[in-house]
Write a structure and sequence with these properties.
The protein is of the alpha+beta class. About 35% of the residues lie in helices and about 20% in strands. It contains 8 helices and 7 strands, in the order ααααβαααβαβββββ. The protein is globular and about 35 Å long. The chain starts with a helix and ends in an 8-residue tail after the last strand.
């Protein structure tokens, strides 16, 4: 079951965000060349090298989290620009002006340690750096966070962690 789920996630991820695994490299995600490229780039560096994450990178910088996400070991559930486009512009602008709230929202996307897809599918929840937990469910071979946010690509490796791409922005419980 887990192998079939991981295979379906990988296929879905390639269609949803093709540049993530190959940004800066023409090698396949499992080849030594791409492993060396990922090993030399932090989570922020990997995200910054992919245009699908320009909004996320901009907000991480605005929140002052670049240093935090460049040191330590983390797993990031990373919303794409398309995910941020689903959030009303007024909400995004308000977050950009309120550094504390922006930081709280962004840290709700980050889990301490490296949690590969093979472990994510076995979890019911994960505690985030925000302090709140995100619920994890598997339905019809797909992984969902908090019921409706779908993981579209898994195991994008960085030198200090793992990125799992998601299709919506997670909002912490109020």
């Amino acid at each position: 079951m887990h192998h079939r789920l991981l295979a379906s996630l990988a296929v879905a991820g390639v269609a949803a965000c093709p540049l993530v695994a190959t940004a800066g490299s023409t090698a396949s995600p499992s080849s030594p060349a791409s492993a060396n490229t990922a090993a030399s780039r932090t989570i922020v560096g990997v995200a910054a090298s992919d245009p699908h994450f320009s909004t996320l990178v901009r907000l991480v910088k605005a929140a002052g989290l670049t240093g935090t996400l460049s040191r330590g070991s983390y797993t990031v559930f990373a919303p794409t620009n398309a995910a941020f486009a689903k959030v009303p512009k007024s909400t995004l602008n308000a977050l950009a002006r309120d550094r504390a709230k922006l930081k709280a929202v962004l840290l709700y996307h980050v889990v301490k340690g490296k949690v590969p897809a093979s472990k994510v599918v076995r979890l019911r929840s994960a505690r985030t750096l925000n302090g709140a937990s995100v619920r994890i469910t598997v339905r019809s071979g797909k992984v969902y966070l908090n019921g409706s946010t779908r993981v579209t690509k898994t195991d994008v490796m960085a030198s200090n962690g793992i990125i799992h791409v998601i299709n919506k922005v997670l909002l912490p419980p109020s």
